[in-house]
Amino acid sequence: MFLAIRELLYSKLRYIMVALIIFLLSFLVLFVSGLAQGLAYDNASSIINMDETAEYFVMDDEAEMQLTRSLVDDEDQQTVHDEVDQSEILGVHQGTIEDDEESQADVAKFYLDDDSALFPEVTEGEKPSEQREVLADESLQEEGYHVGDEFLEDTTEEIFTITGFTSNQKYSHTPVIYVTEEDWLELSGGDELLASALVLPDIGEETVSTLNSQLTDAEVVTIQDSLSGIPGYSEEQMSLWMMIVFLFIISAFVLAAFFYVITIQKLTQFGILKAIGTKVSELANTILVQVGIISVVSVTIGIGATFLAAALLPPDMPFMLPLNLVATLTGLFIVVAILGSLLSLYKVKKVDALEAIGGMEA
Amino acid sequence: MTTKLVLENIGVEFGEGEGKTTVLDDVNVSVNAGEFVAITGPSGSGKSTLLSVAGALLTPSRGKLLLDGQVLSQLNPKESTTMRLHQIGFIFQSAHLIPYLRVKDQLLYIAKIAKIPKQKAKKRTDDLLNMLGLNHRKNHYPVNLSGGERQRVAIARAWMNDPELLLADEPTASLDAARGREVVETLALQVKQQQKAAVMVTHDTRLFDVCDRVITLSDGEVTDIEKVQLKDPVHS
């Protein structure tokens, strides 16, 4: 600490430059992560929110995890009922709605039993109670819809009424509207409710494998895995997370190079310190404390800047940065910074006091 | 009189096979407590190498090194670091101060790694800076000091851990004659008063009268040991 802090204060400019780079890199990492998270949520918040209360989907094994293509037949539904007490039918159907001015909006029509814990909370208006009534995601308000407004549904070609709004219910970047049991029956075009998937709670690995062996045309997948089946989801996420991973790799190399150059410049000093009796462990400690202080300070500023930037973003820009993600990324960043200084530590260990001083040679 | 430092049949070789150079060959030197010894000789005669060996900075190829009766030549790097910290004070050719430490911190740092209690360290720092006339430079960085001042800080630093053995490699090289003499006299006085041992490499023949003995090295061998008539350094 003695050396570390005094040196940081003495060579302010040099270390402020390093700190600036760490700040910029951490800001970029956090911002892109926020964007990735925000896009994921904007795309699939309805499914992500289901993951909070439930764990698995039973889906058609030929649907490639796409809910809109999936259909769980009666036989498989019965198998699930025999094995698991709690299961909810989830119906998903994509379509369009049209207001009285004939302007169209893409929506995803969802069916869930409105008594189940999975059914979203109403944030404005009321739960639909009768046929031809729906609960819609609040993003539909951007299309000009209000509580009590009517629209034309494209499959049934009937007029529906919005009785209430809920929040964070999106599927494939379109707002979700929750239809009643009667309407889903009608949309199913028959006398029984079609199930795009059965939603199951955390039933444990064992029951999952039992079910998988018994189901004929269906499979049990985690809700998390099923996200990849949502059109566009994995493409968006993959490209953004690839950027984040590369940013981390770049950070590691940039920091390693920076600390290494600084260490090389100071080799003589390390040599003197060794000659007058400083232990290698103390020198290593000095470097690590410096790296620690610089990275913690700059990442903290980076976090602040990210939240500031997020507050200044237009509201319809998908951006979301949960604190646990911030904590993980921050930790990772500091680990990367310390990894970057390992090369310097090695160099310091190898410094020969005699060689560094130079003047001692015959 | 107790013998502080003993160098026994020290040999140092660099390189192997055809390129092998013998820098020191069978050197025997011993320094008693309270004795201030000068080593001189032409360039390349092995003076500095001998000093490095005495300071446990360089492990000799042959021979034995004893400080206060303890064998130093067989220590591992970690043990010799500890030895340097507690028993040996170094003064290098150029001051080699730590650029980002203020003058008082240069000394306090030694106290810190040697685990000297704070109060005692502060007092010793003040005493040493006073003695070397550096009190007004206490809060300066090395970059703001003159060459002579830097060298005096280096000397204060070498004394800081109260070493048994003081090793100086041309400590006066960057000082003018008067200042150089003053510094060496201060060193000699300290050595006498506290019964330490000191070895100084120097080319400056004008300083020999301050020393107790002058050892002349030539081609890695001791060619001459000359007793000097001791003068009282304070009044010279």
TrEMBL record, chain A:
The complex is composed of two ATP-binding proteins (HrtA), two transmembrane proteins (HrtB) and a solute-binding protein. This is Putative hemin transport system permease protein HrtB. The lineage of its organism: Bacteria, Bacillati, Bacillota, Bacilli, Bacillales. Its main location: membrane. It is a multi-pass membrane protein. Keywords: Cell membrane, Membrane, Transmembrane, Transmembrane helix, Transport. It is found in: Cell membrane. GO terms for cellular component: plasma membrane. Residues 242-351 form the ABC3 transporter permease C-terminal domain. It comes from Natribacillus halophilus. InterPro entries: ABC-4/HrtB_transporter, ABC3_permease_C. The keyword Transmembrane applies. The chain crosses the membrane at residues 240-262, 283-313, 325-346. Belongs to the ABC-4 integral membrane protein family. HrtB subfamily. Part of the ABC transporter complex hrt involved in hemin import. Responsible for the translocation of the substrate across the membrane.
From TrEMBL, chain B:
It is a peripheral membrane protein. The keyword Transport applies. The keyword Transport applies. Keywords: ATP-binding, Cell membrane, Membrane, Nucleotide-binding, Transport. GO terms for molecular function: ATP binding; ATP hydrolysis activity; transmembrane transporter activity. The complex is composed of two ATP-binding proteins (HrtA), two transmembrane proteins (HrtB) and a solute-binding protein. It is found in: Cell membrane. Pfam families: ABC_tran. One of its GO terms (cellular component) is plasma membrane. It comes from the Bacteria. Residues 5-230 form the ABC transporter domain. Belongs to the ABC transporter superfamily. HrtA family. This is Putative hemin import ATP-binding protein HrtA. Part of the ABC transporter complex hrt involved in hemin import. Responsible for energy coupling to the transport system.
